Write the structure tokens for this entry.
Amino acid sequence: MEIKDSLLKEFAEVYGDAEGVRVFFAPGRVNLIGEHTDYNGGHVFPCALTIGTYAAVRKRQDRKLGFYSMNFSRLGVIESSLDDLKPDKDAGWTNYPKGMMWALEERGYGLDCGLDILVKGNIPHGSGLSSSASVEIVTGYFLKELFGFEISGQELALIGQYSENNFNGVNCGIMDQFAIAMGKKGHAIFLDTADLSYEYAPINLQRAKLVISCSNKKRGLEDSKYNERREECETALSEIQAGMGINTLGDLDEQLFEQIKMAIKDEDRRKRAKHAVYENRRTIKAVQALKNNDIALFGELMNESHISLRDDYEVTGEELDTLVEEAWKINGVIGSRMTGAGFGGCTVSLVEDGAVEEFIEKVGVAYQERIGYAADFYVVEIGSGPCELD
């Protein structure tokens, strides 16, 4: 049964019938390189995936909202209203679509009726492949289509970020929402987060695959040290700005950073800023390496990125380090690094076709032995942005 048919069948069972229901999709994303640079005015290099979030939606005659997730079916239909768009810890996953509705109304896009909504995601929960941003963008996209709003993909991304910052309390950068809203099949997005200028870079992996290794260590960004890292970088930036005129850490290169780093008073903050500067430069070099068809250099830069995230930014942890260190032992692994915010979640590895099976088996066994529970592995493809299913 096709995914659309299964969603419509489930919708009819949950809401009584599936008359007039429309079905939408938004992808998840993985960042190939450029981690924790997006809120530091640096470059990122993410791509959309072919896995993501599906939503079956129908307008109502009143202002009520019905939310049902096939991933959390035991919760049943969670009811709310357009007149009650405020964050609520007990509302769970529905805070993400409600946040988008709130953010759209804040921007003057009024919703004139309620909705019945059914969602199903096939992004591994807690994996760091951006299931929350995927839910936000699929919501923004179906609201745009159902209510006829004139909203560009870039504006949709900014509304998603605004919603996550101000409704859900996660001080995230723009990367996740931008990669999902602007995804293009077969391409990653080389995005300068300082001014949102971007270019699509074709990903020609020749005889290699992208493999996502999910640590299965659950984490919540709100509970992690994500906001703390951001504050450390902001303080470091203000200390540098006292002596020189820069706008972001992304304005610095390695040489200039080494000359002025002692303006940062605290050693931990110095390490955080070093990562932001060096990672930004690595990302620029990595995209150039791909343009030159130098996959080996791209892999080396991925490895360097992980080491910096481990030693300078300190956001990896035993689970992610184990996945990466075991990956590095396998012949045919071109590069491997943690991806996403860290503190759990996933790694992304570039693996030669002939080594994929060995990679999954050997890394899986070593991880289980060291950590005590299993990791999951996904060979992924680069997909497009949000769409309505025919």
Q: What stands out?
A: The mean pLDDT is 94. The longest helix spans residues 267-291.
